Amino acid sequence: MRKVFNFSAGPAVLPEEVLAQAAAEMSDWNGSGQSVMEMSHRGKEYMSIHERAEQDLRTLMGIPDSHAVLFLQGGATLQFAMVPLNLLGQNGYGAYVNTGEWSKKAIKEARRFGEVDVVASAEDRKFTYVPAQSSWKEFDGASYLHYCANETIGGVEFGFTPDSGDVPLVADISSNFLSRPVDVASHAILYGGAQKNIGPAGLTIVTMRRDLIGRARVETPTMLDYQVHADADSMLNTPPTWAIYVAGLVFQWLQRQGGVAAIEQRNIEKAALLYDYLDSTPFYTNPVEPADRSRMNVPFRLPEAALDEPFLKGAKERGLLQLKGHRSVGGMRASIYNAMPIEGVRALVDWMREFEKEHG
Ligand SMILES: *Cc1c(COP(=O)(O)O)cnc(C)c1O
Hints:
The chain is 34% helix and 15% strand. The chain has 360 residues and is an alpha/beta fold.
């Protein structure tokens, strides 16, 4: 058993069971005499790992046959470009909801390829809420509607699936991937990097409506065309084999936990433990509208910045790691992804209580 709890926003904590299995199989996978890292990606051993990972992900998320699953690279950041390149056509426009730092990055990148209309923004209140859909501008003529389902930095999460009518709906789910059920069928594209809630860095997962594949602009680089990856079953070139293997182990672990609905219940419980404590004292503050608070990333502040250093030092002594907030917002942030046990959240709350007693 490890003696630390890692609250990193990403790369982030992985289930101990998964790490133990990966370690046990490190130099000899399943009697093959090879590490997964050493296998040809076109050999039958690796192919079986790859296919099972996709199958298990389909089962966990309820991904219908109408949607392709792509294992890509380049992070969610590359999707900020791939989405417009593949969906805008020559003169379409992208509709974007702006709920924070990651939305802003997606918007900025899309502007390189065409028109963007920000149909709703939470900037007026420093990105502390999700604007109700009734307040959004019309986007009937858009090529797609994009939103970030969980703002990892601001700690703001959508509690609903936007209604986009006939407009293809696209979501960045990097930091709440597999943390709660998602209505896959009503999303044209869901994408996210693996390193927050799924596995090692280096893998980006995309699920995409097959009928929207094949619309990339002519100048789109081969590697950025969804069609090419879909046709090649994510084996256009060498895929991130090790990352896909570990992600596959995480999918199996999730199934043993009872699947996404079961892990959601645990995530609700963990988040409530932390938010209830935050709300019980004026010492710590979280600025986010309660209904829109993220279950995955919980930013909070101490009464003065001078206390940050001693708080982090004491946390580290107790094995509570990586609690420092994002450099753009300061303060603290606890990321409590699927693999964070509730004991970790309890240990954090215990430390927060103790620290408050000392300094409050
Ligand atoms: C981390 C993150 C990204 C960027 O992911 P990379 O894989 O590093 O490119 C984008 N969107 C969200 C919501 C994130 O949390």
